[in-house]
Design goal:
This protein is mostly helical and 347 residues long. The protein has 19 helices and 3 strands. Helix 13 runs antiparallel to helix 14 and helix 16 packs across helix 17. The relative contact order is 0.10.
Length: 347
């Protein structure tokens, strides 16, 4: 069911081509000693965006196999299969270098706010996004007029997430009508989720916000591809009926037999974002199946996406299944209740 090829060089591509010719949607994980940009482009052209590098270790192999299994296999017929996702990925622009510079500075404890200010000032789009967000009541900041003030007041975790929240603009055209929302609504929903996780987890474990502040704005980027498929299948109306009655995940699995979180993880993997961000998003719908070291992060992301749904509805109370999940993972409900009430009052 899965081919792992450790032959290096052109022999790896012969294996990939053989599988494409003789087996439908069979995943291949080639292993290389090293890989450059030319090789990455060649992999994409062969409808394969997965690979591993030597030396292997058990954790790396485990994570790759879990990702591959979730990405390729489903008990139903997969409509958005690997080849369709790879075809879509080829249309995506590369992420601007500014994104990776911001990510690197924000994850480095030794980097200063001044380092961050210098990089952000080179990107007018990200600068405008940060200034706009800094004036929002959702972040509890006001009277900010300069980008220096905004970055200093908001801090690294928020800035990193705000920068990453703009990556969906590298996917064009942006049409999310399948979900009954437009681009502006999609952006506002990301802001709501981001604000909720910040208000909640700053009282739980502020260190985890390095990951959670990013997953809160990236887990639904797969909606952009799913929305395209719904239009092509002429299933918009049917999808929205299922969504209204049974929720997003049920509607996605019923019609395209995958979920936005799973597609999001595959897109972000192509963009080479941080592995922990990808793994948390991958397990958002089923957090208890996440690897032990990230299960608490997957649970938190699942809760945020449950309380702020895909069209921006905010739960007025915390549902019983979320309360049960929190009890199972020893999470105090009071900080979440306070954060949820703050979001409801200020959005």
């Amino acid at each position: 069911n899965i081919v792992i090829s450790n032959l290096n060089g052109d022999d790896n591509y012969e294996i990939i081509q053989h599988c494409l010719n003789h087996f439908k949607n069979l995943p291949v994980i080639p292993i290389f000693d090293k890989i450059n940009k030319t090789e990455k482009i060649r992999l994409l052209k062969s409808c394969n965006n997965q690979y591993m590098l030597n030396p292997l270790n058990s954790k790396k192999l485990y994570n790759e196999l879990i990702f591959t299994t979730k990405a390729y296999f489903n008990s139903k017929n997969i409509l958005i299969n690997n080849q369709r996702i790879n075809k879509f990925i080829k249309t995506i622009k590369p992420l601007p270098s500014t994104i990776f510079k911001i990510e690197k500075i924000c994850d480095d404890d030794d980097s200063s706010i001044n380092d961050l200010i210098k990089v952000i000032k080179t990107d007018p789009i990200i600068s405008a996004t940060i200034l706009k967000s800094a004036s929002s009541s959702l972040y509890g900041t006001k009277n900010i007029t300069t980008i220096d003030q905004a970055i200093t007041r908001l801090g690294k975790n928020i800035i990193k997430a705000l920068a990453l929240s703009q990556v969906y603009k590298n996917i064009t055209p942006i049409d999310i009508s399948g979900y009954g929302i437009n681009e502006n609504q999609y952006s506002n929903i990301s802001t709501l989720r981001h604000s909720l996780i910040l208000k909640w987890y700053s009282k739980v474990n502020i260190g985890d916000l390095s990951i959670l502040s990013s997953t809160a704005v990236l887990s639904d980027i797969g909606q952009l591809l799913i929305s395209m498929e719904l239009l092509e299948l002429n299933e918009n109306d049917n999808f929205q009926k299922l969504f209204s009655n049974f929720g997003t995940t049920y509607a996605e699995e019923s019609i395209v037999h995958t979920t936005s979180c799973l597609v999001s993880a595959q897109i972000l993997k192509y963009w080479k974002l941080q592995n922990d961000i990808i793994d948390v998003i991958l397990h958002t719908n089923n957090p208890d199946l996440a690897p032990k070291e990230i299960i608490h992060l997957a649970v938190a992301n699942h809760i945020v996406y449950s309380l702020v749904d895909s069209v921006g509805n905010i739960s007025k109370v915390i549902p019983k299944h979320i309360l049960d999940l929190m009890q199972k993972h020893d999470l105090d409900v009071k900080p979440l209740e306070k954060a949820l009430n703050y979001i409801i009052e200020n959005h």
